[in-house]
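Task: complex structure prediction.
Instruction: return structure tokens for all chains below.
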Amino acid sequence: MSNLIKGKEQEWETVIGLEIHAQVKSNSKLFSSSSSTFGSKPNSQVSLVDAAMPGMLPVINKYCIEQAIKTGIGLNAKINNYSVFDRKNYFYADLPQGYQISQYKHPIVGEGKVTIDFKDGSSKDIRIVRLHLEQDAGKSIHDQNPTKTYVDLNRSGVALMEIVSEPDIRSADEAGLYISKIRSILMYLDTCDGNMQEGSLRADVNISVRKLDDKYGTRCEIKNLNSIKFIKQAINYEVKRQIEVLEEGGVIEQNTLLFNTSTGKTRPMRSKEEAHDYRYFPDPDLLPLEIDQEDIDKLKKTITELPDDRKKRYVDDYNLSNYDASVLTADKFVSDYFDNVIKFDKTLKKSSKIVVNWITSELFSLLNENNIEINNSPITPQYLGKLVKLLKEDIISGKIAKDVLVEMFNTKKDPEKIIEQKGLKQVTDTSEIENIVNEVLQENQKMVDQYLSGKDKLLGFFVGQTMKKSKGKANPKILNEILQSKLSKKN
Amino acid sequence: MDFKSISQLKSLLDENKISIKEIAETYIKRIKEKKELNIFIYFNEDKIYEQVKEIEKLPNDKTLKGIPISVKDLFCTSNMPTTAASKILENFKPTYESFVTQKLIDQGSMFIGKTNLDEFAMGSATNTSYFGNTINPLSKNDNPLAPGGSSGGSAAAVAADLCLGATGTDTGGSIRQPASFCGVVGIKPTYGLCSRWGIAAFASSLDQAGVFSKNVTDASILLEEIAGHDQRDSTSSNVQIPSFSKNLNPSLEGKIVGIPKEYTVDGTSDEINGVWEEAIKSLEKKGAKIKYISLPHTKYALPTYYIIAPAEASSNLARYDGVKYGYRAKNPKSLDDMYEITRSEGFGKEVKRRILIGTYVLSAGYYDAYYLKAQKVRKLIANDFVQVFSDCDLILTPTAPSAAFPLNEKQNDPIKMYLNDIFTVPASLAGIPGISIPYGHDKQGLPLGIQLLGKHYNEQEILNAAFALEKDYE
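Output:
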């Protein structure tokens, strides 16, 4: 598939690299014991260290280190036995220390790679340059007072992992797939909650364009995007803008941009004169981080199945297509749900494709309509398994099954009970269906005549009438057979 | 009543010859009499009497029960304001107590007040304080002398008998040099022996808390109380703290004392070289072996220090921005404006000079040439000591190149002022312990100090040797 973009005169290739900031899932901050819970009352989760009071010192949170190592393992990356925390110096109201503790020259995680899967079944590796740990800043609130800025330090000091990719991404779609994949890996590892709305996962996007096989063009960086939709929009806008500039004979100036989500446009964040010199240097309050290989190996053992492993299992064991398997495994909760449906009854393994369809179409639409996450689904995987089994065994029809699913969703009831109470069991008794067919044909003599004179399309009408009379319970296969044989006899 | 030492006052207390309240009254009276020396930034009688009530409730076995102690105003204290001698922290009241001062409180000490210092401990004469100069109590009327710095207030407080012990911090000599100028004992332990938690930072990789006292025994008593591991300071060492005072032993039999040739420098007074000679002879007489050694990278110590310390300071002091606490400029037009005015008005000249130097040496394009190179040289300097200590137990040097100088002498020449740290800075860069004790006087009768340096965590060794030398002047 070609990712080249047609300009006025020629085709352009987009080159994208992502810096993903993922909040480490941890009860406390990177260098203090304050809580890191989202949405708490402003400045209610601020320790003396977070507020940078005189004489306060950072102390590394070991759990955050373990989380970063686990993430590195999940990204197939090299874990560095030696890493260093540096100070990145700059002034801002929500940066109490006047510097951010980050990792500059010696990150905790080195080179790695992740694989993204396309709809056509093909896949591509995106290389990871590094992952490093750093502190988040606080939040400046400008819109509550016309002349004042308020500062909330709850987020100040919260642990972030910055995951930097090589410029291996070639389109907005690839960027979307990449960030989804990273999100999925983090959620499987339980090292980040993946919540983009709450800002647990944000990305800076570096974009440039070039003529194919040319050297990289000058890049611009779009800061702080917090949804896959916006990432794609921002990329598409920026690519178009850069191509226009270049085709008009202009040059791209290296710049940091902000994306305005309401106008869909990017604009420069600061001018060149304001460019920061961060004066990185090793934080003398913290010793270099030395990690034993033994500890890394121990953590490796705690890591359960990752999306790629699970995908492979679905393809190998359940015969799912590569794409279906990747859609299913993208969200750990969806995939867990699927696994639990199959676990309910081993025979469903053979019907795994049907199970996938029921999850990704019927269940998803109910969940989406009601804005519920799958891990909070009112329909348990066991009940969905039961429903699919009832369908497979011809006890209910597909149409009834859909109605039952809605009922299950609303009442959390066992599908068997719903079917029993409402008498929804499929009619498979041939004579009963034959009686109904006879009634329908008698009542619609005119139509029968028309059919016989060549209006084949009316078959559907008879099917519908019969189904209606049976209140949807007639087994469609038997119904069809009977109807066709009756009609052919009349001929 | 004259109180000569902590142990003497303790026995008076134990024998009920004096009450804690009487101690308080005595010292309050003295402090009031010596007000013109400007030793204290914070002094409040009521706060002292409040403490007396609390201290009286403590069991008698508390090592420092009722002992009057001064605290350098760089240590955050929860019942007294903490200024770091800066306008930017004027009226700052911490809600927390530093590790070191908490330890002293736990042992029943009575905090007399917060002592003056060079602003954020940047200086060698206690003359960069927002609250004015401290005057060396040994000055003659017509010629006010500097007490040294940066812990000049604490050294002066002990010298003027306004307390029996004081806390200090030493980044490049800020305990040892003022101890020498004021004729008291001052010890800077190994980097990491005392937690930095709650001490306003100057240069994190060098800052170390220590104590001033009237004699070596008292220094041992105080040091063993304030040392110890603290999980809240990642650079705090987890080592067993010996009972320094109980282990004090003046025997130097078989000890090898190194005399570094690089410490003979131009500009050191003959009198100082003279007392150095005397101390060498005395050590020999006491059974020590003298070894003339070389610390070849010594001459790079001062430039190395004046790159690393300002670099760290420029970052450590970024938190004083007027946003959260401390001084804030009136009516700034923008956030940048607020930073600029706050920091221009809030910091003094020397602090600004060091922030500028530090910012410069960390800047893109200069980092490798200055900061990185300085770090490499620092390793060489530290290695010099490692080499020497493989066959030496101690090193003996002068503490400072001169006796206390007149107050305004080096005010306008920072380089001259920086040269004062020439003998103290190498040990700071290496992180090894050092002690200064008074040893003789110059012709004007001003005290001179000598310095003993030891191996990492070998405070006992330098305390023992200091204890032995101290007897020469008893």
